[in-house]
Amino acid sequence: MKHTVVLITGWACPPQRIAPLAHQLETRLEVKVVCLDLLDLHHPSQPGGSRDMPSPYTVRLNKHIQHIPGSALLIGWSMGGMIALEQAACFPDEITGVVLIGSTVRFCRSHDWPHGQSALRVQAMMGGLKIAPGRTLSRFYRECAHPLILDKATGETYVNEAMVYDPDQLHDGLKYLSASDLRDLTSNIEVPTLLLHGREDAIIPCSAAEWLHSKLDGSRFTEFAGMGHDLPVRMPEELAEEIAGFVNGDAVVINRGTHIV
Questions:
Q1: Are the C-beta atoms of 247 and 73 separated by less than 8 Å?
Q2: Nearest-CA neighbor of 73 among 159, 162, 7?
Q3: pLDDT tens track for 139-183
Q4: Nearest residue to 250 via CA among 210, 222, 214, 220
Q5: CB of 150 within 8 A of CB of 5?
Q6: Does the pTM exceed 0.90?
Q7: Tell me, which fold does domain 4-260 have in CATH?
């Protein structure tokens, strides 16, 4: 029986955006990869901005994982990584480890958390989705690509692909990002953890991953110089190589380790 990898997308990023990474993982690790869209984890009755843990997203994720034979490696990108982190803290027996790509414990800045976006910026995005969704998403995708340039044709494709989402689903995702603070959960995480982050990430600062790495004994942290938030799109082969090392044991170390690619 093949082992299973569960790969969760980020906000407003359909599964086809992470398909190249899924392919690389299946090739290198001989595993079955299950790609979960945040759409798969959304429920129309869920409170989008609740601080209760686990969140409804994670409750639904755990139900998905329970139908997988054996334990699974959980990989989450951006908001998907936050949900994966919740799973690791609240339902650790269901997974063998967690990989966080461009993710964080708290998306918005606060007086004691400088590693995030302005809450006003997220509120502006919520308003923008109602007034000009295409323009709002286009700007988001350009910022995901920073410091690289997202060409116009690719940006238009991304926006068209995102039209599969109901505006309420995107809005609820932003409410989750605005309200969630997972810092207190870090003391509950004991599964092996790999952090992968772009050094120039303009959506979630690399310092957020550095903070999390400092809190998780035995975690592995790799930063990618000159890269931004869209690592799964830009570097699927390199990410798969890091994850393969993690799965095969040579990246799961007792002491904290960091390296730059």
A1: yes
A2: 7
A3: 999 999 999 999 999 999 999 999 889 888 999 999 999 999 999
A4: 220
A5: no
A6: yes
A7: Rossmann fold (3.40.50)
